[in-house]
Each structure stands twice: as C-alpha cells, then as structure tokens.
C-alpha cells in the first residue's frame, strides 16, 4: 500500500469537505442570556466547597496527632509533675493566706 | 448607520453588554466551523463555541484593537479547541478493526485501484476523521491548520501562540505520527 498516496488522498478528502458554518437557532440569544444573567453567589455551594477543601487537612492533622500520641515515648512522671505544679500554683495563694492566719 | 466593530467593543467595555450580540451574530458561523474541525458531537461543539464567547466577553479588555477583532477571536477559538482536545485525549484510543463497511470498501478500492478511490467519498471523509482522532492534540491541531486548512506557518504561529520553529518541529512530528497511524491501518488490515 502506498502510504504517501493514502495520506495525500485522505488530506484531500478532508479539504474537499469543509465543516458546516451552521449556527443553531437563537444561539446568540442563549449566549447573551448567559452573559447578562446577574451573578447570584450560591452560598451552599461555596460552603460545601470550603468544607470539602478543609476535610483533607483536618484528616491529615488528626492522623499526625494520632501517630504522635501512639509513638511518642510515654514519660511516666511528666504528667503527674505537671498536675502537681498546677495544683501548687493554684493553691499557692490560699496556702500563703492560711499561713498568715496561723501566725497571728 | 450601524455601529462599527470598534464602537461595539468600546460600548461593551463601558458596560453595555447588549452591544456584544451583533459580534456574536456575525462571527458565530466561523467559530462553529472551526469547532467542528476538532469535535464531532454537536453538544461538544456548542460547548466549545459557548466557552469561546464567554472567554471573549471576559477578556475583551485585553483586546487592544491593533489587529482585527476576528483575528483575536480566532486565536481564542483555536486555544479553546486545543484545550478541548487535551481534555478529551483519553478517548482517542480506537481499534482500526472497527472500521465501518464503507471505510473498508474505500480502503480496498484504494489498495487495488488507487485512482478509483474518490477523495470526495463520504467514506474517505470518515476515515480521515478517524485518523485525526488518533493523533495527539498538538499533532491534530498542526495537521488541521497546516495540511487541511493550508495556512502558512507564520499564521499558525500567531493562532497557536507557538514560535515558528516550534510549529515546524510539531508539524514534522505530526506528519510522522500520521504516517505511523496509516502504517498501522495497513498492518491491521492487510498483513
């Protein structure tokens, strides 16, 4: 098969059949209606899009925190130290007052 | 007296959207003809043309008026058609064993009596459409503009935004791609 000749014939066939310039009925009216339509923001769609976008980072953060709590070395005394320090701080004023009362 | 194109465009830019309608009316036939080169289904063609006009309206500020509006619009149309081809390039896989009966007959006639295979036949038109659908988006665009529409390289460069050397390189590759597709037809059908 002569491929060059086939190529030439097929290109000639495409040239011999130019596409139609037909425009569908009232097409320009449709375009103008689309262009002049007032833009009303679709709040539900905006919220839905924002929530979908937020979902991925939230899942990523959740997974990171889960991994951190799971793999982090458990410090046995650190938790109790913190609560003890908090208690001391909160009760420091009360203890001071009570010491003052007793000294009278 | 009817307003000129420049007056209509100036009016649209001032906020009178209705002045855009005569432009849509005047140039839609050309935009439709161009879109029909790259898409087959009428719904796809209408989508392309609609997108062209929406883009034209939104980007009208970027039209400086140095060249005719038609040139600017055709550049936009070609870009939109190229985007369409790129978005639909996954659909271009089709086996040549699926050739229709008239297409197969036309090929048979071409193989045995090349002079009898008429270029005006419907089967030849369908076959070239099938071949063009197999091409990559860039190759299809170049073959259509250069070989079928017979446009000069400089004009293709202006329409596509590609440099002249790039158009030449892509034309070379496109012809090779087309030869490969035709060789595949020959292999599948006659070997």
Describe the structure.
The complex is a heterodimer of chains A (104) and B (191). Chain A is mainly alpha-helical and 104 residues long. Chain A has a domain at 22-52. Chain A has four helices and no strands. Chain A has helices spanning 3-16, 27-36, 43-71, 78-103. Chain A is elongated and about 110 Å long. Chain B has 191 residues and is mainly alpha-helical. Chain B has two domains: 1-87, Rna Polymerase Sigma Factor, Chain: A; 93-191, Arc Repressor Mutant, subunit A, CATH 1.10.10. In chain B, helix 5 (101-112) crosses helix 6 and helix 7 packs across helix 9. The longest helix of chain B is centred in the C-terminal third of the chain and has 27 residues, at 164-190. Chain B is elongated. The mean pLDDT of chain B is 89. At the A-B interface, helix 1 and helix 2 of A face helix 2, helix 3, helix 6 and helix 9 of B.
List the helices and strands and how they pair.
The complex is a heterodimer of chains A (104) and B (191).
Chain A: H1 3-16, H2 27-36, H3 43-71, H4 78-103
Chain B: H1 5-13, H2 21-38, H3 42-58, H4 69-87, H5 101-112, H6 122-134, H7 137-148, H8 153-160, H9 164-190
Task: Give a quick precis of the structure.
Chain A is mainly α and 104 residues long.
Measured by DSSP, the beta-strand proportion of chain A falls in: under 5%
Number of E strands of chain B: 0
Structural class of chain B: mainly alpha
- Architecture of the largest domain in chain B, according to CATH? Orthogonal Bundle
* Integer tally of domains of chain B: 2
What features would you highlight for this structure?
heterodimer, A: 104 residues, mainly alpha, 0% strand, elongated, B: 191 residues, Rna Polymerase Sigma Factor, Chain: A, 2 domains
């Amino acid at each position: 098969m002569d491929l060059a000749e086939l190529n030439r014939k097929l290109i000639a066939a495409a040239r011999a059949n130019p596409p139609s310039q037909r425009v569908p009925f009232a097409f320009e009216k449709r375009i103008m209606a689309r262009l002049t339509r007032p833009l009303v923001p679709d709040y539900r769609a905006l919220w839905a899009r924002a929530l979908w976008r937020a979902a991925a980072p939230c899942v990523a953060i959740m997974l990171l925190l889960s991994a951190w709590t799971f793999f982090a070395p458990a410090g046995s005394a650190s938790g109790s130290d913190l609560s003890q320090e908090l208690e001391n701080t909160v009760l420091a004023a009360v203890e001071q007052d009570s010491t003052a009362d007793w000294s009278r | 007296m009817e307003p000129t194109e420049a007056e209509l465009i100036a009016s649209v830019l001032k906020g009178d959207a209705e002045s855009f309608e005569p432009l849509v009316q005047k140039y839609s036939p050309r935009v439709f003809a161009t879109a029909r080169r790259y898409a087959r289904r009428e719904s796809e063609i209408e989508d392309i043309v609609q997108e062209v006009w929406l883009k034209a309206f939104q980007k009208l500020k970027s039209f400086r008026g140095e060249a005719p509006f038609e040139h600017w619009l055709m550049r936009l149309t070609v870009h939109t058609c190229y985007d369409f081809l790129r978005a639909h390039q996954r659909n271009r896989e089709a086996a040549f064993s699926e050739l229709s009966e008239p297409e197969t007959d036309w090929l048979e006639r071409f193989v045995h009596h090349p002079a009898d295979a008429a270029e005006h036949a419907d089967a030849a038109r369908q076959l070239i459409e099938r071949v063009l659908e197999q091409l990559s988006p860039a190759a299809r665009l170049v073959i259509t503009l250069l070989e079928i529409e017979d446009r000069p390289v400089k004009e293709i460069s202006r329409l596509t935004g590609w440099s002249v050397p790039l158009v030449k390189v892509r034309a070379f590759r496109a012809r090779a791609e087309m030869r490969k597709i035709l060789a595949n037809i020959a292999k599948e059908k006659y070997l």
